[in-house]
């Protein structure tokens, strides 16, 4: 979906726009969530050091991406600098009408926030002084900052413990199952899964937090927050204009990521096709989220040469160890003078490469995270991995290929989830409408 710089597309709401079918009274009167813990560790307040950098940051903050379109924004959109990801469970005794109403309310609010507006026309300060405001207000005066809001449906939304709560079990995609266990997983239930998920990305962390905070408030009485994650410092790129970022191990990440202008790769690997089943998912995708803790202090004591062998790339330039520059294709047949592979057989680059996985590609949108420190005084930090794929099996195959990755000695998968991401909503409709047709 092409962005509009500074000027919303025709589908973007204006200040006087009415909610489709009316934003529900319950959505507007949801309680205001507390702000404790809503600070982005390490990512807030990082200055841009050059005039060119400041100009790029200003341009990014002015970006507006239309919420409505054939695909949901936040997938091929240029990866923003900050993330707030949230997983929700529907409340007990909610029914199909409650779910539809929630998705309508969320879609309406998201369309306005993506345009840089409050969640409703009265917003944070335009309503009655005797009632809670419709918007929490911390984004007043801030631009849209390239905000995108992406919604997903988890396996348990369709059926939980054998119960079809919302009359949609027959429409569950056959591949939408809880991800299988992988070697070395140490998953925490309170950091995994969920009926619904929301991915909010923006170039201003406060804009992303504002989005999740208000969507959580609107959900009051219908869905509750299960877990959430703040991310900073993107670890991938989706356009050629973006520089390849670095992860917390100090290596460039996402060099070979699928780019937004590679329509053939997107059609083959990311978008659910009209010929795929179920029909309501055509134009959508599948989202995998994995919280991966990094053993930072242990990694920092590893020799540079060994770090490069573990990754399979030069740490400075990002070139494969077989030679060339960052974008040179790795030569897995090249050997050293002693006959050993120049790119080690258990290196991350080799095991994750499409050539080693039957051509399988994923579109990645991961972020660094730092959640303070643990009880041992070590950084609680790592990678919040996000990938989009046409079929969940693509991720499963790649992850199984990584079972012998020597980098596993320095990481631990502690959170996991899979969600079906519906196609984009038409203006005046809502995300997931096809599911309930």
Short account of what is shown:
The protein has helices spanning 25-28, 51-61, 96-114, 155-158, 205-218, 263-269, 296-299, 304-311, 348-352, 392-401, and strands spanning 4-5, 63-64, 82-90, 148-153, 196-202, 223-234, 285-294, 363-364, 367-373, 379-389, 411-421. With 437 residues, it is of the alpha+beta class.
What does this structure look like?
This protein has 437 residues and is of the alpha+beta class. Helix content is 20%, strand content 18%. It contains 10 helices and 11 strands. Helix 3 packs antiparallel against helix 5. It is globular, with a radius of gyration of 22 Å.
Low-confidence stretches: 1-12, 14-22, 28-49
The global form is globular
Counting DSSP E segments of at least 2 residues, the number of strands comes to 11
Structural class determined from secondary elements = alpha+beta
DSSP helix count?
10
Mean of pLDDT: 89
List the helices and strands and how they pair.
Blueprint: E1 4-5, H1 25-28, H2 51-61, E2 63-64, E3 82-90, H3 96-114, E4 148-153, H4 155-158, E5 196-202, H5 205-218, E6 223-234, H6 263-269, E7 285-294, H7 296-299, H8 304-311, H9 348-352, E8 363-364, E9 367-373, E10 379-389, H10 392-401, E11 411-421
Antiparallel strand pairs: 1-2, 3-5, 3-6, 4-5, 6-9, 7-10, 7-11, 8-10, 9-10
What attributes does this structure have?
437 residues; alpha+beta; 11 strands; two-stranded antiparallel ribbon; nine-stranded antiparallel beta sheet; 20% helix; 10 helices; 18% strand; disordered N terminus; globular
């Amino acid at each position: 979906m092409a962005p509009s710089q500074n000027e919303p597309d025709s589908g973007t709401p204006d200040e006087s726009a009415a909610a489709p079918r009316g934003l529900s009274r319950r959505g507007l009167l949801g309680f205001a969530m507390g702000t404790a813990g809503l600070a982005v560790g390490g990512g807030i307040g990082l200055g841009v050091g050059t005039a060119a950098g400041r100009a790029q940051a200003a341009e990014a903050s002015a970006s507006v991406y239309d919420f409505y379109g054939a695909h949901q924004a936040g997938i091929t959109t240029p990866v923003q600098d900050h993330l707030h990801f949230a997983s929700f469970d529907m409340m007990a005794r909610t029914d199909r009408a409650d779910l539809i109403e929630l998705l309508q309310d969320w879609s309406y609010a998201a369309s306005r926030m993506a345009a840089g507006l409050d969640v409703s026309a009265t917003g944070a300060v335009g309503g009655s002084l005797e009632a809670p405001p419709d918007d929490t207000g911390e984004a007043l005066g801030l631009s849209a900052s390239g905000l995108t809001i992406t919604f997903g449906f988890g396996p348990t939304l369709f059926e939980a413990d054998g119960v079809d709560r919302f009359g949609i079990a027959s429409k569950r995609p056959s591949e939408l199952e809880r991800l299988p266990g992988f070697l070395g997983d140490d998953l925490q239930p309170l950091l995994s899964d969920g009926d619904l998920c929301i991915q909010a990305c923006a170039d201003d962390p406060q804009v992303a937090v504002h989005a999740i905070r208000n969507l959580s408030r609107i959900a009051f009485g219908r869905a509750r927050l299960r877990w959430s994650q703040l991310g900073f410092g993107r670890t991938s790129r989706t356009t050629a204009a973006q520089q390849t970022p670095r992860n917390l191990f100090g290596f460039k990440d996402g060099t070979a990521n699928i780019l937004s202008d590679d329509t053939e790769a997107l059609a083959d690997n990311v978008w659910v096709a009209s010929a795929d089943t179920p029909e309501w998912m055509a134009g959508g995708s599948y989202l995998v989220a994995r919280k991966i803790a990094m053993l930072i202090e242990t990694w920092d004591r590893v020799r540079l040469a060994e770090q490069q062998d573990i990754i399979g790339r030069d740490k400075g330039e990002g070139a494969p160890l077989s030679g060339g520059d960052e974008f040179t294709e790795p030569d897995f047949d090249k050997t050293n003078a002693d006959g050993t592979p120049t790119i080690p057989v258990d290196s991350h680059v080799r095991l994750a490469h499409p050539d080693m996985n039957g051509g399988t590609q994923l579109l990645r949108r991961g972020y660094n995270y730092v959640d303070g420190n643990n009880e041992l005084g070590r950084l609680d930090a790592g990678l919040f991995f996000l990938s989009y794929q046409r079929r969940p099996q693509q991720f499963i195959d790649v992850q199984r290929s990584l079972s012998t990755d020597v980098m596993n000695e320095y990481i631990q998968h502690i959170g996991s989830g899979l969600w079906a991401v519906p196609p984009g909503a038409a203006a005046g409709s809502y995300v997931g409408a096809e599911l309930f047709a």
